[in-house]
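S.,

Sequence below, as promised.
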Amino acid sequence: MKQKFLLTGIFLLLYSAYLNAQCINGTKSYPLYKKGAQLVEKLDDDGSEIVRIEYDLIFTSKETIRELSPDWEYSIIGFGDDGIKDLDVKLYEYDELLDKWKLVAEDKTSEAYAIISYKPTVRAVFKVKVIIYEFNEGYSAARYGLIFVHD
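The prediction came back faster than expected:
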């Protein structure tokens, strides 16, 4: 229940936050970091533990690797600057038997942010893929933030 309340609060913060962020076209980074700081404050106030924060430039997609533990349910929050119209996050677990990555969670919304939750069954290495499906007009690149959190 706490996890659903937390995710609802994060959704509302991301949905309602209007920042004049730009990328490449205007080269402003600070608005995205400010948006991330607002999320960090909300997560801290809610008693969640942030275990990783990442910011980067993105043209189509980016991948990052992280070990996750079955002791926690994780929320992975992706968000972008005003250059992004549709950002999605996908979580993959490595399947040693099949020798390939298996999709275990994904965001399917059409927003400039994404939130997924997942509780691993074993300690393992996971891959997170941030995908830009659509940029806003005039943009061919943008900045994104990615936050890993658990209670």
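Strands lie at 49-58, 61-68, 74-80, 84-95, 100-106, 113-118, 124-135, 142-150.

Coffee later?
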